[in-house]
């Protein structure tokens, strides 16, 4: 049980920066984007219609607690895999699945999931977004086009991913990590914990502990992917991570701008107090149409659209559509 093995051959040397704090080890790699050949290779293992033009496929963050046999991994390949509609359906948390007449009659076997799926549920299937000219294209008469065949859409063209990171037992994944990147992370022979559980919680992330009064000792950031959506907008995903004396905090952000239509942010906020054996995690969905942003007098100029920090600038102007918290115990 693991996330997908890394399919690139021949391997490149990937160097990891390592930081240790309060019984945790943090490994971070930052590499250039994939070339065309590397994109073709990962296309064989990611079940999507297409891939973003820019994929930082070598970038990783591994957050490791050997004593508790716990691994929290951030991987561009895992994030992009969740753009697949089939994968989204399989991984959607039961709390978010609407009851249907057929659900009660489902074979019990189909309800069973493996450990990876159980630990890595998603909380949202992002709704499809269309470009501003979509209605005109729909009205086009295709009846006279010879051999016309409608393409089955199997993934989100905007790469909207509800990815929250990948939670795994460390001992079951050290060989995969070593094989993929020659990175050796030796697990503890007899860890104190053998089970990871995830449950809903009302506990909130203590924002007051993320202020300048609790200074950042280490800061890391990795980009996962980016695309200009055929000049129809912009999408990107990245992870920001900070370590303080008494805790750590991570933000996984997916951002989407479809010009003239919509702006969307899917955020996952991850907080751990070093004195506990759990992580508090919040998933946010924020979104607004261009008309809604205009009504709030948000500056939709090209100056904003070209700003590399445009997601931060628009964040407070987006409507909060959904927020949910869970507690990862290990």
Distance between the termini: 17 Å
Task: Give me the oligomer status.
Answer: single chain
Our estimate of the beta-strand percent is 25-35%
Instruction: Tell me the strand order in the biggest sheet.
Output: 3-8-9-10-11-12-13-7
Order of helix and strand elements from N to C terminus: EEHEEEHHHHHEHEEEEEEHHHE
- Counting DSSP H or I runs of 4 or more residues, the number of helices is 10
Number of E strands: 13
Question: Share of helix among residues?
Answer: 10-25%
Count of distinct structural domains: 1
Q: Would you tell me the overall average pLDDT? A: 90
Shape: globular
Poorly predicted regions are: 99-110
* Computed Rg: 21 Å
GO biological process, one term: TOR signaling
Pfam family, one: TIP41
Family: Belongs to the TIP41 family.
Protein name: TIP41-like protein
Structural commentary:
The protein has one domain. The protein is 18% helix and 30% strand. A hairpin with a 4-residue loop joins strand 11 and strand 12. The radius of gyration is 21 Å and the shape is globular. It starts with 16 loop residues before the first strand and ends with a strand.
Outline the fold blueprint.
Layout lengths: L16 E5 L2 E6 L6 H8 L10 E2 L4 E6 L4 E5 L1 H6 L3 H7 L16 H4 L3 H5 L14 H5 L27 E4 L4 H8 L15 E4 L17 E10 L5 E11 L3 E12 L3 E12 L4 E12 H6 L6 H4 L4 H5 L4 E11 L1
Antiparallel strand pairs: 1-2, 2-4, 3-8, 4-5, 5-6, 7-13, 8-9, 9-10, 10-11, 11-12, 12-13
């Amino acid at each position: 049980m693991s996330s997908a093995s890394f399919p690139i051959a021949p391997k490149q040397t990937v160097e990891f920066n390592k930081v240790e704090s309060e019984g945790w080890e943090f490994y971070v790699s930052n590499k250039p984007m994939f070339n065309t050949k590397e994109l073709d290779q990962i296309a064989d293992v990611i079940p999507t219609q297409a891939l973003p033009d820019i994929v930082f496929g070598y970038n990783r963050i591994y957050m490791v607690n050997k004593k508790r046999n716990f691994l929290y991994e951030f991987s561009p390949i895992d994030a992009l895999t969740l753009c697949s509609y089939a994968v989204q359906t399989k991984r959607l948390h039961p709390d978010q699945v609407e009851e249907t007449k057929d659900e009660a009659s489902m074979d019990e076997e189909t309800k069973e999931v493996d450990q990876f799926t159980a630990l890595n549920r998603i909380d949202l299937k992002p709704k499809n977004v269309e470009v501003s000219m979509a209605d005109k294209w729909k009205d086009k008469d295709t009846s006279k086009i010879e051999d016309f065949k409608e393409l089955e859409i199997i993934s989100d063209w905007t790469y909207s991913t509800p990815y929250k990171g990948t939670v795994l037992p460390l001992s079951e994944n050290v060989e995969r990590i070593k094989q993929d990147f020659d990175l050796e992370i030796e697990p503890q022979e007899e860890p104190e914990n053998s089970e990871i559980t995830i449950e809903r919680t009302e506990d909130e992330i203590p924002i007051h502990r993320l202020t300048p009064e609790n200074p950042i000792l280490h800061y890391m950031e990795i980009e996962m992917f980016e695309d200009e959506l055929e000049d129809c907008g912009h999408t990107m995903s990245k992870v920001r991570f900070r370590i303080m004396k008494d805790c750590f905090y991570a933000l996984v952000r997916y951002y989407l701008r479809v010009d003239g239509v919509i702006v969307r942010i899917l955020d996952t906020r991850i907080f751990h107090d070093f004195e506990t054996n759990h992580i508090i995690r919040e998933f946010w969905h924020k979104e607004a149409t261009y008309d809604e942003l205009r009504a709030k007098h948000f500056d939709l100029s090209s100056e904003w659209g070209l700003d590399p920090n445009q997601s931060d600038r628009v964040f407070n102007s987006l409507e909060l559509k959904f927020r949910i918290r869970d507690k990862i115990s290990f």
